[in-house]
Amino acid sequence: MSESSSGALYVVATPIGNLDDLTPRAARVLAEVALVAAEDTRHSARLLRHLGLRRPLLSLHEHNEAARVEQIDARLAAGEDVALISDAGTPLISDPGYVLVRALRERGRRVVPVPGACALVAALSAAGLPTDRFLFAGFLPARGAARRTRLEALAAREETLVFYESPHRIRDTLADIDTVLGARHLVLARELTKAFETFLEGSAEALLARMAADPDQARGEFVVMVAGAEAVAAAPAVAVEGEALLAALLAEGVGVKQAAGVAARLLGGAKKAWYAQAQALKEARKSH
Ligand code: SAM
């Protein structure tokens, strides 16, 4: 599969719920690699079984990732290809893999993305919030004070804000969004691609009320999307023409030298030139 004599690491996206979302290319890569590095090998063994595959699995999670670099690099050096998958969606996106990919790239190894499902992209694609610019902020901190501080740091951002959230904290997070960001428009994508996929929208306060009325709405996995801050309208630029400014100053009884100084400070240019212009204007006023 590799073009060079050393192998490649394939970073393979897997489904976030609906198993049909695994791409044919992902299935082919998983069938052909010598080793699959997976966040949770038991979980991934089920996916491989579903595909009718039996591949050697190696666990790779945030606690052993650095230690796995040498092992995986040795396999690549021997000309074998390796796949990296996470429990769901695209590896490295709020999932392990960054340390490995960084280290392999530093060593000049080939790292190949095999794109597919990603919860934040799926959520944004159907939410109806602006997507021309967005800020993905991953999971907010678990503790309330740290969470509110993080939200405060994002409060002025005009891009759509995107967070991942678990069912344990969704209510606390909505309450903090309400406190810190106020009555913004939110879209909550729940259980994407699964049986109970739901999109709810409204203010954080309204969404909390909805969850209080129907606790099922607080179950499952969430992508929280928040409309960006309203752009603060820029103060209208006042275009002042040099001659009009000088004329107004002279009419107010300001001297030629002072008027030239004000014009140079406000509008730039050489004070000498402004002086000459102010002098000419004064002469013209006199002759009228
Ligand atoms: N790597 C994954 C991706 O590409 O989206 C994300 C992994 S992260 C550990 C798990 C979080 O992603 C969940 O807590 C939830 O916020 C979001 N997520 C994953 N699957 C989801 C789904 N089917 N519906 C909504 N959110 C989901």
- Count of alpha and pi helical runs: 11
* Helix and strand pattern: EHEHEHEHEHEHEHEEHEHHH
Share of helix among residues?
Answer: 40-55%
Number of domains: 3
The CATH architecture assignment of the largest domain turns out to be 3-Layer(aba) Sandwich
CATH class of the largest domain: Alpha Beta
What would the CATH topology of the largest domain be? Cobalt-precorrin-4 Transmethylase, domain 1
Named once each, the bound ligands are: S-adenosylmethionine
Uncertain runs are: none
Shape type? elongated
Average pLDDT, rounded to a whole number, is 93
Beginning-to-end CA distance, first to last residue? 89 Å
Classify the beta-strand content into a percent band.
15-25%
Quick one: biggest sheet? 5 strands, parallel
Describe this structure in words.
It is a single chain. The protein has 288 residues and is an alpha/beta fold. The chain has 3 domains: 8-117, 3-Layer(aba) Sandwich (Cobalt-precorrin-4 Transmethylase, domain 1); 120-226, 2-Layer Sandwich (Methyltransferase, Cobalt-precorrin-4 Transmethylase, Domain 2); 238-287. Helices cover 42% and strands 17% of the residues. It contains 11 helices and 10 strands. Strands 3-2-4-1-5 form a 5-stranded parallel β-sheet, sandwiched between helices. A 5-stranded mixed β-sheet has the order 6-7-10-8-9, with helices on both faces. Strand 8 (186-190) and strand 9 (198-202) form a beta hairpin. The chain is elongated. It binds S-adenosylmethionine. S-adenosylmethionine (SAM) binds at residues 16-17, 86, 88-90, 93-95, 118-120, 164-166, 189, 191-194, 221-223.
